[in-house]
Design brief:
The chain has helices spanning 2-29, 33-55, 60-87, 92-103, 111-118, 123-150, 156-164, 166-179, 186-211, 221-244, 249-258, 265-274, 278-306. By secondary structure, the chain is an all-alpha fold. α1 packs antiparallel against α5 (111-118) and α11 runs antiparallel to α13 (278-306). The chain is globular and about 50 Å long.
Length: 307
């Protein structure tokens, strides 16, 4: 119960405070959503991606097992969500949003605080979560962006639109600069840190603005399948892969818990940017985040017994 209360107070309430503020301000001032989307996608997100990759300190001893798990688990989610979308006969636009809400999770501003709480006496747990967050950043801004773009474009246009997204270059540059230990002058690094720090608040304010006029009383049935896939199916798949790879201890616990986080807020941002059912994506983020204290706490407790 203490863990549940901590997750609600330390993670959920701050998230919903910012989301609620965004909804209130949008109703009051009627923001230009296209401008908000462009600022977040083309200015704030590349900065936070570069800073996170450049500052990361991935432990090589556990990296192979963690990456093996992430590739298998996300690959399974991609395949299953694609089969579900085809079985449900969703159009390309809705299928892209549906698949992204299941595959991509909020491992950054939700996952890292939860890991800090759960593994406060086990530094390895937080290190693993940072690896997961970096992997999710790459997945979101490669697979996630590609799904949205390919739902609109055909052939060569997909590659052109994909290469226009600055986050791709930010992540690659961050990885190259970190690998080569390239120092960044303070007059560049300090503004980058300030921009990255602004991302969380602006992303959640934008998400709140998206939700300002959403009728939460009319949630489509597909939404509940999305939330089931993100909060329940994902941990089940993770458990199977953890046992298959014979992962143990804190590594197994951290990966199991990381699989249960709610839908990524970036899915809603990109759905808005590319025009693929942004209301549906925002509802998925909201509902999965609202329910996640129960599911994440249950998975955290279960991980202690299993590993």
């Amino acid at each position: 119960m203490n863990m549940f209360i901590h997750i609600v107070i330390e993670v959920i309430l701050p998230l919903f405070f910012l989301i609620g503020t965004g909804a209130f301000l949008h109703r009051l001032f009627h923001f230009d959503m296209n401008t908000l989307s462009k600022v977040t996608t083309y200015f704030l997100l590349p900065a936070v991606g570069f800073v996170n990759v450049y500052e990361s300190n991935m432990a090589s001893g556990i990296l192979f097992g963690v990456l093996s798990f992430l590739v298998l688990q996300n690959g399974a989610l991609i395949a299953i969500s694609a089969i579900m979308a085809k079985w449900l006969k969703l159009d390309r636009s809705l299928a892209a949003t549906f698949q992204n809400t299941i595959v991509l999770n909020n491992s950054g501003n939700f996952g890292i605080p939860v890991s800090q709480l759960v593994f406060r006496h086990e530094p390895l747990g937080l290190s693993i979560q940072i690896v997961v967050t970096i992997f999710q950043n790459f997945l979101t801004n490669t697979y996630g962006v590609f799904k949205f773009i390919s739902a609109n474009e055909n052939g060569g246009k997909i590659a052109v639109e994909f290469l226009k997204n600055p986050i791709i270059y930010a992540l690659v540059l961050g990885l190259v600069f970190r690998s080569l230990h390239v120092p960044i002058p303070s007059f560049i690094w300090n503004p980058l840190e300030h921009i990255a720090a602004a991302f969380l608040a602006m992303a959640l304010l934008t998400l709140g603005a998206q939700m300002a006029y959403i009728d939460l009383k009319r949630m489509p049935a597909l939404l509940f399948l999305t939330v089931f896939g993100r909060l329940m199916l994902s941990p089940i798949i993770a458990l199977v892969i953890i046992f298959t790879l014979h992962l143990k201890g804190v590594t197994a616990q951290a990966l199991f818990i990381a699989s249960a986080y709610p839908c990524s807020r970036n899915t809603a941002l990109y759905a808005l940017e590319y025009g693929h059912h942004p209301d549906y994506a925002a509802q998925a983020v909201f509902l999965s985040t609202l329910l996640s204290p129960v599911t994440v706490t249950a998975v955290a407790y279960l991980s202690r017994f299993l590993f």
